[in-house]
Amino acid sequence: MEPIFSSISNNAYDLYTLLRCIGFAQKARVQITPDGIRFSVEESRVMQGLVFLDKALFTTYTFNSTPTAGGSQTRNDHNPDDEEPAAYPQFLISLTALLETLQIFGISDTNSVPSFPNAAIQNTPAGAFTNPALLLGRSCTLQYSDVGSPFCITLSESGVTTTCELTTYESDDPTFGSAAGEVDIPLQRDAIVMKIIMRSSWLYNAISELDATTPTVLTISASSKKAPFLTLSSSGGPFSESSVTFSTENETIEGDTHYKSIGDNGPIASKRAKLAPAVTETFQVNPPSTMGPLVKESYRFALIRKAARAMAAATKVSIRGDIQGVLSLQFMIELGSDGKATSEAGVAGVAYPRNVSFVDFRFVPLVGQEDEQQEEEGGGR
């Protein structure tokens, strides 16, 4: 009987780079679909990390199953506009063991792991992450034979073949595998009040600066009406509160007509762009009238820290917030044709990356007394 799923990748580093971004959890939920493999991890149902390994990342990709009643309905996050999620086989595996397997020929070097000063990044050594050349040219085969069977990873390099069979588990959640077992933190795409796209390095640097004060709460404030337009603030730590305010373009007033130069026929008029942070390429803040002109939500800083690897590896980040305060940080990671993750998009005269993949983190906001308790606990340390 043919296996439910099998695939071959000639570049294990691509897979490792993406999965490493959600390596803060011990176990991952895996769902195999005709379009790729979806990995999701969570912490206490208030944070979730999502990675979708598109079948384009693989040299061959074979899927021999159809949606079953035993699979849970899960939206494919590589295509956020997909309105009809399908049900396909899913299971739990040890993410720690999977990452260790993918870098089994690597050299441990934990000192070079990109993270915030206070980030508690754990699980596997960073040899493959900091020594990508060791993973180039390595063939990686993934296979899932039947429901309940092990998830098999085979690595081949220079005539040496290593096979690892990871035990698959059912979730302790009684709704796991049922249509009611939806565990995704919901982001209301029809009620987005904030959407900001910027270079991921800007966000990484800002969070890293705030992390130096060992805070417990991160507050994001955004306004389309007046400065400061985008501010990240930290509080609750043993030190003073801190904030990072993103700069704005000078003299950019929406709707005003300005005369920038004199031509043959007189002054040349031009309308200036909407006032927005200079570091963003998209800045949309549209809160309902009941919220006022300012979008402001707070989150546990310890959870934001866990996105450190994705921030460091990504080129861009999309920051979205819905009317309920759920925060989505979607990171775009470019994977070059030489197997290395690139930090910048291609420019004229330089080859563009072969693949683009996304890693999505979602956070539930702190509310009311929970917010105050976080600050009090931080101040009492």
Fold and architecture overview:
This protein has 381 residues and is mainly beta. It folds into two domains: 5-166, Proliferating Cell Nuclear Antigen (Box), CATH 3.70.10; 189-248 and 275-379, Box (Proliferating Cell Nuclear Antigen), CATH 3.70.10.10. Helix content is 14%, strand content 38%. It is built from seven helices and 23 strands. Strands 2, 3, 4, 8, 12, 18, 20, 21, 22 and 23 form a ten-stranded antiparallel β-sheet that branches. A five-stranded antiparallel β-sheet has the order 5-1-9-10-11. Strands 15-14-13-19 form a four-stranded antiparallel β-sheet. Strand 13 (217-223) and strand 14 (230-235) form a beta hairpin. Residues 72-78, 80-85, 107-113, 120-133, 177-182, 251-263, 267-273 and 337-353 have low confidence and may be disordered. InterPro entries: Rad1_Rec1_Rad17.
